[in-house]
Amino acid sequence: MTPLLLAPLGLAALAALVVPLLVHLRRRTEEVPLDFAALRWLDPRPRPRSKLRFDEWLLLALRLLLVALLALLLARPAVLGWQDDALRVLVAPGVDPAAAQQAAGPEAELRWIAPGFPVVGEGAPPPPAGVSSLIRQFDAELPQGAPLTILVPPVLAGVDAAPLRLTREATWRIVDGGKTQAKPAAPASPALAVRHAQDQAGAVRYFRAAAAAWSDKPRFDSGTDGALPPRGSVLVWLVPGPVPASVSDWVSAGGTALLASNTEIAMPAATEALWRSVTGATLVEGGMLGEGRLLRFTRPLEPAAMPELVDAGFPARLRELVSPPAPPPARIRAEDFAPATGAAPFPLPPRELSDWLAVLIALVFLAERVLATRRRRLAA
User: CA-based Rg of the chain, rounded to a whole angstrom?
Assistant: First the structure.
């Protein structure tokens, strides 16, 4: 443990130590002179040499100590290496608390892999979220010599795509007996809202068939009124000519629109080919427009111009186009995610002692007040 001062210039306040000294020199215990009859015959001229002396040494010492402690508080004392090297045990969500305590031992203190690292047994188990980053954070905040044990279920949820690399060699233990984690629900099929011109009604059937292939209860509607659907739906715009500004605004606010080839609109600068034919020709192009996605067919929606419309793989290819990008997988077998070593250690911050010093100052001040106002001193 190494003591240090974070603001050493605060020790300049030690110059205030002269104040209690001056106070005690000027305010000595008052003495009332008494004249005796025999003293009148003595010569008043010779006087004894005055000496520098202090009264009430204990009170003076307390006041000097109080000033010194205040100066030390301004200097912000701290210590390095205050952390202990006791074993830390982390428990991943999904592990049964009783099984974790049995695996770690009755004396071990277990903490959940969750924000704040709460103690296991205090409250409900947290949901699995950000497990990888939380393990890295806990490892970075530990002293370099402290051992670490991590208890995980057979299938670990809430991880990211990066390998787990720590600053120390941690004990990675897989604990059975936890609750079986439910598989994530399959994403709902997209809702298609087709807006078409009267002469484009024939192309609507391809999208209706695709929606029926996605689900037994397809979410599909069509019309010629031009009304925009809710934000979660996919707008299929089959109206020739300029695209209304309301459609562009709808896409910019987070919507997804798929346009026919005979529409007129300025495509995003980052437009790229999203679907190619077997010969390499572009069938659908698109890119991000504001917060949403703008897609457009490059060929008329007719089997003669685009044979892929009647292909058995058209529904799956269309769903892949209009669905938002899938999030990266967050579940992995725990045995495949064991941490490696080699991460650079982080310097731990010093621990300030200001709180403890403030308590000591309060106690010294209280003792000084009691001694300064005691009855015997007031009666002197």
Answer: 40
Band of pLDDT at residue 49, cut at 50, 70 and 90: low
Nearest-angstrom CA–CA distance, 267 and 272: 10
- In the DSSP assignment, the letter for residue 338 is -
- Residues 310 and 303: beta-carbon distance below 8 Å: yes
- 84-97 pLDDT per residue, tens: 667 889 999 888 88
3 state SS of 355: helix
Rounded-to-integer distance, Cα 69 and Cα 45, Å: 47
DSSP string, 49-104: PP----S-HHHHHHHHHHHHHHHHHHT-EEEES------EEEE-TTS-HHHHHHHH
Q: Are residues 189 and 211 in contact, defined by beta-carbon separation less than 8 angstroms?
A: yes
Distance CA 380, CA 377 (A): 5
pTM recorded for the entire structure: 0.48
- Across-strand partners of 286? 272, 295
Of 30-44, 110-124, 283-297, 306-320, the one with minimum mean pLDDT is 30-44
CA distance 263 to 297: 9
For residue 284, give the H/E element and its range: strand 282-289
Answer whether 341's CB lies under 8 Å from 166's CB.
Answer: yes
Give the angle subtended at the CA of 251 by the CAs of 246 and 252, to the nearest 5°. 95
The whole-angstrom separation of Cα 155 and Cα 336 is: 10
CA distances from 298 to 87, 105, 211, 260 (A): 63, 66, 21, 8
